[in-house]
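The data are set out underneath:

___
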Amino acid sequence: MDPRVVVVTGASAGVGRATAIEFARRGSKVALLARGVRGLEAAARDVEAAGGTALAIPTDVGDYDQVEAAAARVEAELGPIDVWVNNAFSAVFAPFTKISMDEFRRTTEVTYLGYVYGTKAALDRMVPRDRGTLVHIGSALSYRGIPLQSAYCGAKHAIQGFHESLRCELLHDDSNIRTTMVQLPAVNTPQFDWVLNKLPEHPQPVPPIFQPEVIARQVVYAADHPQRREYVVGGSAVATIFGNRVAAGVLDRYLGFTGYKSQQTGEPARPDQPSNLWEPADGEDGHDFGAHGSFDASASSSSAQARLTRTGLSPLLVNLGAAVGAGAKMVAADPKAFMKALLARPA
């Protein structure tokens, strides 16, 4: 049993919901921060059923005053914060030229500044005690931008830089506070059912797709072992990050050829699809979306690469092997596009 006090932002659905439940299984006291009242209420019931203590706090992480007030309430009702998991985000599926500046700003406020605000609220309480752990939920897109997600990718890149800068400062101060980051692959979450979509077809994660519980297990492990600067989940994420380091130009062209099609299902976009950007889709007028999205049939519930990184094996060797295997699958999935990207004249 692990009775630590854990804060999870974006806890009403998706990875945040699954992570809160995973901590609850160990007996943690879990504060659930998100905007959606219906989603939060359901998440709190899930946490209690899993054996944890739940405190649901409706919070817009894009508003620092709300985040600070939530942190104060957590410490008043649950006790000193031991772990803070930054996870909340929003996004827009559209070419950059079709995104309004208000939409881009709002995505950045939630997806990037929400992490900054959460970190500040947590550190203001952790620093005087000289203990605590910060876990930032990142993505392979923290390293590699893809088409149709410019606002999200820009925010994830910013989080990566923020995390590295903060880590250096904590090391300089010889602090006992730890910060780590978990880089995600494509995940089956409700985001694709409530994201602001301006594409002609319904959006989808780029396969291979993993269930949110795969991520949750790695997040909890990262909170237990925060000395490592980052954890990468899934061979596809490892291959994307590694490929970007050695052949970024080839990936530019490959994603230019394939990135639009691979992020759409082929089915027409629903005209009545909710948008979670400005108002929560799981708010009082919405419904609970749960942890899973609509891709259960094609999502994997395990990752050999993720499991092996939680053993005593060298993460470098595990990730190198995963990158080779996932890279070969990517090439095999569309060899014509890969060869075209490889042989094309650099732009």
